[in-house]
């Protein structure tokens, strides 16, 4: 039986030698996707979320026009919910809500003028310019090393139910903004 010819012939046997290892690697890669990646900046933002101090500032994008280019960004967490673009996030209500991540201007290939979090259509200014050397290293763009943002909204701004949040970056020239795609989360 050890020398029985493969039913599909040598071509099938050769294809299987390549396909099976690739399938195994793909499964390993996919299984790693269900676990949030530990990030020092995200951990710091989570600590701020647990501290629960609102940090709302006026929106930086007021009066500006949207640009069509896609926004390079990550919303690392919404309170204890990590990577909400990848995982469904449901957080406890009745307490302040922190949004943290990074974003940079895709045209200038550097930092922007500011970040807003647009929650259910209402823009809130976020603190922008936090150190994110991991982002600069990943994209090989030193100019994005200070692309981190965070904002903590008061509990009354985020009631129970389904919500939509958009990360908005004001362009480096200050004349327009870039929006990321809408991300849904729940408060229970």
Please, what is the average pLDDT? 83
User: How many separate structural domains?
Assistant: 2
- Could you describe the largest sheet, including whether it forms a barrel? 11 strands, mixed
Question: Would you count the extended β strands for me?
Answer: 11
Please describe what this structure looks like.
By secondary structure, this protein is an alpha+beta fold. It has two domains: 1-34; 40-187, Immunoglobulin-like. It is built from three helices and eleven strands; from the N terminus they run ααβββββββαββββ. Strands 1, 2, 3, 4, 5, 6, 7, 8, 9, 10 and 11 form an eleven-stranded mixed beta sheet that branches. A hairpin with a 2-residue loop joins β6 and β7 (122-130). The longest helix has 24 residues, at 9-32. The protein is globular. The termini are far apart.
């Amino acid at each position: 039986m050890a020398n029985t010819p493969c039913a599909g012939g040598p071509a099938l046997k050769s294809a299987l030698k390549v396909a099976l290892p690739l399938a195994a690697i793909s499964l390993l890669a996919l299984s790693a996707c269900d676990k949030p990646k530990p990030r020092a900046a995200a951990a710091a933002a989570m600590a701020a979320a647990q501290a629960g101090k609102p940090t709302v500032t006026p929106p930086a994008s007021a009066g500006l026009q949207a640009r069509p280019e896609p926004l390079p960004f990550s919303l690392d967490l919404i309170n204890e919910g990590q990577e909400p673009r990848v995982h469904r996030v449901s957080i406890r209500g009745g307490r302040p809500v922190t949004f943290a991540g990074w974003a940079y201007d895709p045209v200038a290939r550097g930092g922007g003028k500011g970040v807003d979090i647009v929650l259910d259509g209402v823009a809130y200014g976020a603190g922008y310019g936090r150190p994110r050397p991991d982002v600069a290293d990943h994209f090989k763009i030193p100019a994005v090393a200070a692309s981190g943002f965070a904002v903590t909204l008061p509990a009354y701004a985020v009631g129970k139910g389904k919500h939509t949040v958009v990360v908005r970056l004001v362009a480096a020239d200050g004349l327009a903004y870039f929006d990321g795609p809408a991300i849904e989360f729940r408060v229970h």
